[in-house]
From TrEMBL:
The keyword Translocase does not apply. This is (spotted green pufferfish) hypothetical protein. Pfam families: C1-set (PF07654). PROSITE patterns: IG_LIKE. Residues 1-86, 95-196 form the Ig-like domain. Keywords: Immunoglobulin domain.
Length: 202
């Protein structure tokens, strides 16, 4: 089980053994077959007639996020038990994405991209002008809890892009907002919305 992060770059994993006797128990950890030695093993505690043991290890967050396998083995006189821990992959629910454009003034144009009803909470928004990514003058709102469903919580968020009006008011110029689910998701993870400039009819 994932117990939480020690720092932003580390994740603490826990291994729990229950209902064993006698109390002698030895833990070992490995990552993708390579032994790990920097772990903690706590003294067993007794509840009723049986013992419970816990071991914890801190691992690199990148290894955890990349899906590396971490194996915990609890060795006991009655036999060994092992458990493999891997970061779970969750289904992505893509949002409804809408894109609007407004002129802040004669010099600047603002694009607003609203993503509504997505899950999980982690996401990424990218902006493109005529297929080329734009990375400057972007601001994002905090993620907002939209609603709760039997399958979990749905969220909404918005991203804003400000550009020079001259970068927008060229005929057939296209701006695209691309929403992407977090890296831990599976299934379809992209959805986009685009707007194309058309010269006003005189």
């Amino acid at each position: 089980m994932e117990c939480g992060s020690v720092t932003r770059n580390m994740v603490t994993l826990g291994c729990l053994a229950t209902d064993f006797t006698p109390s002698s128990l030895t833990y070992s950890w490995s990552k993708s077959g390579a032994a790990l030695t920097d772990f903690i093993q706590y003294p067993p505690t007794m509840t009723g007639n049986y013992y419970t043991g816990i071991s914890q290890i801190s691992v690199n967050r990148n290894d955890w996020d990349n899906g590396d396998d971490f194996k915990c083995v609890a060795a006991h006189s009655t036999g060994n038990v092992e458990a493999t821990l891997t970061k779970p992959i969750v289904d992505c629910q893509l949002p409804t994405v809408s894109l609007s454009v407004s002129s802040a003034d004669e010099q600047e144009t603002v694009f607003a991209c609203l993503a509504k009803d997505f899950s999980p909470k982690n996401y990424e928004v990218k902006w493109f002008r005529n297929g080329k990514e734009v990375t400057s003058k972007i601001s994002n709102t905090p993620v907002k809890e939209e609603s709760k469903t039997p399958n979990g919580t749905l969220y909404s968020a918005a991203s804003f892009l400000t550009v020079s009006s001259s970068d927008w008011t060229e005929e057939n110029t296209n701006f695209t907002c691309q929403f992407k689910c977090g890296s831990e998701s599976k299934g379809p993870i992209h959805v986009s919305s685009s707007v194309t400039y058309q010269v006003p009819v005189q």
